[in-house]
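pinning this so it doesn't scroll away 📌
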Amino acid sequence: MLRKRIIFTLIYSDNYFNQSRNFRLQRVGDSNWLKENYKFNKIAHSIDELIILDATRGVKSINNFASSLKKIVSNIFIPICAGGGICKIEDARLLFQNGADKIIINTLLYKSPEIVAELVKIYGSQSIVASIDYRLNDLIPEVYITNGTEKIDIKLADYIEYVQNLQVGEIYLNSIDQDGTGFGYDYNTITMISSILKVPLIIAGGAGNEKHLLEGILIEDVSAVATANLFNFMGNGLPVARNMLNLNNINLANWQDY
């Protein structure tokens, strides 16, 4: 049985890290602030993976993002997934060269599937995470790309099938409605799409405490729970969350054994 995972997500924009609510960004601090408040080399036993997303509005600089990525991941020995604004093979290569173990892609899935196919060929499915953002309209999930600003006319279930056919390794499913609210995940949608999953599912959007992480990870077809809540998981928030999941016999890796 595959072990389940806790993932922490950082939202990057214009050299700063942000709290996001419904995809509206609130600037929090730069790399120095991040190092002061999140000593990832010390809390690495509390998370299984770190995802860093470039949510810069307008023109993104892949070089600036790669430079920030390199600073963050130095001396961190957990898998790093990075993305946001990857438009071509060279962008992905730059992120891999600067510390990423995986890349996460979103708009590229829809607009340039041929590039996705090439990325899979070069780096392997296990290195490619497909990010899918959605929001509900009369309880019907609708898919959005381009930082959640552009709706596409494909039903969520159909889009998941389409993305899986691109041979990605995982899906990162993010609820725009729940994003940053701290009210918990969109359990109804997660349960609805679980029967069509062929790859591991990471759920995101809404986790505000360890109880939400537990509720999400208990869903049978969920492989990992992610949170981007900078404030609610400061200090010992992540170690407390992992301890709670361990106490509930969740099949997590026990990093202290290594």
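📌 and the second one:
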Amino acid sequence: MNKIRRILSIDSLFFLLIAYLLIKGWVNRDNSYLTAESGIGYNIGIIGASMMLILLLYPARKHVRFMRSWGPIKYWFQIHMMLGVTGPLLILFHSNFGLGSTNSNVALISMLIVSGSGLLGRVFYTKIHDGLYGRKIELKELSELLTEIKTHFSDNEKFENALNKYESRMLKNRHLLIAFLMMPVLRIYTSIVRFNTRRKIQLVTASKEHLADINRYCSVMLRVSDFVVYEKLFSLWHLLHIPLFIMLIISGIVHVIAVHIY
């Protein structure tokens, strides 16, 4: 039941609707239902561009002092994500899924890059937060949980040394690209460690508590390892996303001015 609820969540239904509209618009792009110069096509462009400007309210809500009391940040983030998808969708319909003049092409490509960047940022965001709109998971909390689990094996030096070796390899400081590429390798390594450690425990004791502890330990270690990588990726993404968005705003303004002057 919970799995069905996740599949039928509002987010999932929203993105399914967006995907349907994208496909529908692309298939019918040659039917010339909309034109960018007038009518509904023109108005859709204005609405889409306005949505892209409204996106600026989210970072303002986070950083401008007098706006910090304007409701929970998670709802601002939800609106930011929805506008960040709906705005580009309307712009695509405005352009009839095709290219036009040089200035419009620059604005369109900038928008697509920023929109794609936003979706990528959402992926990184979910990896370092407890739920998409929840509070950030602190590495300290996970580390404390690891320490608590390891205390169950403090009476066995062999097990503790093996776990310390595993921990040092999982948390080894690596270059970001190497650390990202190593993520699937570390998952395989964790599975091997979990299997071998469980087998050794079963030879010494049949304690179900210890078997459960080693499962928790390996699971939390993976979360810690992933957290370190995704936090760095999210920080890097944030540095790139802001100038991309500024480029989008500038190109959009130039496009609007050019259209109405020429």
